[in-house]
Amino acid sequence: MNWRRFRILCLVVLVVGVAAASVVFGQAAPAPGPDSVAGLRAAAHELVLQQSEMGWRSYVQGDSSDQASLYRKYEYLFTEKSIKMARAAWQTEPDADQKRALEFFLHYLETEYVGDQTAELNDIETDLEAALPVLVGGKLVPYRELDGLIANEPDRARRAVLSAEEYRTYRLLNAVILNRLLDKSHRLAKELGYADYLALAVSAKMFDLEDMLAKGREFLDLSEKAYLKLFDEVSTIPRAEFRRSDISPLLSAKSFDRFFPKDNLMPAAYKLFEGLGLGEIAHHKIQVDDRPLPTKVPRAACFPIRVPQDVRLTIKPIGGVGDYSALFHEFGHAQHFANSTTPIWEFQQLGTNAVTEAYAYLMESMPERETWLAANTTMTPAERAKFRRQVGLAKLYMARRYLAKVLYETELHRGVAEPQKRYQYWLSRAYGFQLTDEESTRYLTDLDSLLYAADYAQAFYLEAMLDTYLRAHFGAAWWTNKKAGEFLQGLWKDANKWTGIELAHKLGFPGFDNKLLFDYIMQVAGEAAR
Q: What is the model's pTM?
C-alpha cells in the first residue's frame, strides 16, 4: 500500500489491516512462501498487519515510518512471477466469490509492486512532513499543525501568512520528492504491462472512467448556478477576492461551533448508533483514540487493523462542527468493518473504497439534518436553516471538487502539458473562484494515489442513493429505526466485496445519477425537514 498517498486524503485514511492469517477462504493456510498463491496470500496477511500497525503508530504517535524495511522482508510477494501466478489463478477460478477475491488480490499485488519500489520515496515524504517545522509568529511549529491553524484562524491576513508557509513546503516537496515519485510510479505501471499509471489505477478501482469523466463535466454544469448562489449567500468575502486559505473558514461553519460542544461529541455518536441498534459495537468493538498528542496527525482516520475484531479510530478533537462531521464519518467506516462477517480476507481488507466512503459520508450527514439538529442542539429554526444552507454549500463544494480532481488527475496521468495549469483550471472551475499560481503549487500534493478521488466521487452518488433507499423503506428519521440498522448490517457483512456500481444496483439504481445527487444536496441546503 502507498501509505503516504492515503494519509494525504482529506477526510479519511483507510489503513489496510489483516484478519487472522490462518483464514483463507475459511480453510487453514499453508506456511508463507513464494511457491503457491495460497502461500503468497498468507504472507500478505502478515505484511499488511505489520504495515497497518506501523501506519497507526506513525499517524497517531508520530513514530518514524520504515515501510521500506517491511517490503524488503516480503519482497518475493511483489515480483512478476508472483503476479503471473495470481493472474493465472484468477483467470481459471470457477467459484464466483473466490474469483472476485483473487481479482482483488491480483490488484493488490500489482499496486504493491509499485508501492514496493517507491517505498523509500514515500518514507522520505512521510518523515519530512512529520519532522518539518514551519515558522508561525516567530515560533517553529510542526508542519502537520498548519491545516488546523489555518482553519481556525479568524483573520484573513493571518491566514494568508500561514498559507505562504504551506506553499513554500509544497514547492519543497514537489522539487525534492513528488515529481520523482510520480515519474517512477508511471514507469512501474508500464513494467506491469499497463499502458500507463492511469490504466493501472482504473483496473484497481474497478469503475468506468469515461462514464465518470462525463458525469463530472455534467455535474459541474448542472450545479454551477446553485453553487455560486449559495457561495455568494454564505460567504462574506466576494468571490473576486476569495483565496484558497478562506475555504476552511467558509465551509467549517465555525459560527455554529457553540452548538456542537466537545464534551457531547462521543455521547452524540453513541446515541446515534444506539438508535440504529448498533450501540454495543460502537462502544465495545471500535477502539477510539481521542488523545491530543502533539505529533498526532490532526485529521480523523479509521484504521481497520484486523477485521472485524480490531478496528481503530483516531480523532484529535478541538470542539465544534468539524469534530462531529469527522467523528461520524470515521464511525461510518468503523461500523462498516466492525460489522463484517465474511471470512474472506480480500473482502475484509482489499477491493475498492467507494463503498466504505459512501457509508462514511452517510453517517457524516447525520448532524446536518433538520430532525437531528432539532433533537440534539439548541438552535432555533432560523439558525438551523442558516446552518443547513452552509452545509449544502460544503456538500456541493466537495462533490464538485472531487469530480474536478478526477478530470484533472486523468489529464495529468495522460501526460497533459503544464499540469499545474490544468490543476488551476479544473479546481478554479469547481471552487467558483480563481486559484493563483502560488495556490496551484498543490498540484502534486493534492494528488490522490491510484485515483482515489474517483472513490470519493462515487461515494457522493452512493450516499444519495443510500439515503433515498433508507427514507423510502424506514422513514424520514431512519437512523432512529433499528430495522434500518439491520439493513445496513446486511450490507456491511460483505465488507468491501462490492464495487460502487454494484452497490448502486443492489439498492435498485441503474447507475450514478447527477440529478439524484444534486437534488439530495439541495434538499440538505433547503428548508424542508429531513
A: 0.86
